[in-house]
Known about the structure:
- The protein has 264 residues and is mainly alpha-helical.
- The protein has 7 helices and 3 strands.
- The radius of gyration is 33 Å and the shape is elongated.
Amino acid sequence: MPELDSLASPEGRNIYRSLYTTLRQQRQLGALETLRILWRIAVGERSLRNWGHDNITFRHKLGIVAGTRLWLEEIVSRYYYSTVVSFVYAGAAILLVVVGLRRFSGGISDTIVMLSIGLEALLLLLLFTVMFVSPAEDIRDPVVAQLNDIVREIGEIGREHAASTMALEKAASAMERLIGEAKRLADAAESAARAAATATSPAPETIVQLEAVNRALAELRTSIESLAIAARRIEHEAIESAVRAEVERLLAARVHDRTSSAQR
């Protein structure tokens, strides 16, 4: 019975990769079940008797840290890299949709936006982990490098959109407070004018001045309300323009990639 040093040895790695083919193609196991079984084998198994290799044993177990690293290197990065990238793309699409709808729908709360950002961050962290443990020869494909650049740009766009949304919301809140203060000042001026009108023998010039102040405050309130409406319109147009430009850029990059692939 041959005895290998560990599953991380060159012979052990070849046998470990062959187990993936056995579980997926011969035993027809699902992806999650295959990943679970292979992780358990990498972490704690010293014999492959239950998996079709009766004559192979190992002197040492790898343990959780070394076994998980072997599992990521030989199984996840080799057979599920495209799946991880697909999940990252899906998270980026969800983030862009949430950020875009946040400006046009009151049903999208800040919590949903932050959860979307957190989901995309977790997916990017998963992609980083898979790429970090991938063998150097597995990540030399220029197409993979281009996909990684696109994913990084999408993440930056999502963060910039979230930051701009927060800043615009703060500006809108400040504008609303200013409108409230102007209205309160106008109400105080109207009260002063009524008090002056009901006073005994008011001076005519005082009444004229108070009426002028009241008109000026009313015009100020109207101007501030118009300014707030214009600011919201500009904000919506800026968000729509940014999202439209980014979608056009991504579509153009995808068409260019497909054209380059077809030419090859």
